[in-house]
Amino acid sequence: MIDNIWLVHPELAMCDAFARRFDGLRNVRVVQGRFEDLGPHDCFVTAGNAFGMMTAGIDAAVVRFFGEELMARVQHRILNDYFGEQPIGTAFVLETGHASLPFLVHAPTMRVPGNIDGTDKVYCATWAALLAVQAYNNANGHRIETVAFPAMGTGFGGVPFDETARQMAAAWRNYLDPPHRLDWEFVIERHRSVCYDGPRQVAK
């Protein structure tokens, strides 16, 4: 299991939304700051697009930190594994070769830059990132302990801060409490946790 997640954003309003929505969930740290200012941690999750075009937003900051070679490696992986287009709801782990941040997860929230408000894509990308790290740890012996996430989908995606925090919290909650059976009662409960905020459907 992943030991800790960091939720990172420079704006207080987003950090407040993280704190509200993740309240009561264990092993969570909210960090008001920029990606570039983070201390050493095991893994950072990107929130980009399906083609690995890492030229804007948090992706651009990641490329500035690691260099253009990282974007080339991300795109090479997308070409090889996904025939040039990585589906939303998938993610993969890359080793960076950087001592203070040895792993990156590429988990797109959108095919191309554009509005994704009213969808469950923030949840899908967050869930995919968690599962990709879990699979990597299972195969390699628990090497990734602390995973840092940006506010998924709040840039070009246009998802409001509170809704992003809600969907990301749903993914972390579901990761911490996996099911032991699969039936329709579970399916309905899981669907509501992702797509409803209380009695109101907010994601399709």
Automatic annotation (TrEMBL):
Sequence ranges assigned to domain Macro in this UniProt record: 15-204
Gene3D superfamilies the record matches: Leucine Aminopeptidase, subunit E, domain 1
Signal sequence interval, chain numbering: none
Xref: InterPro entries: Macro_dom, Macro_dom-like
Protein name: Phage tail protein
Organism: Gemmata obscuriglobus
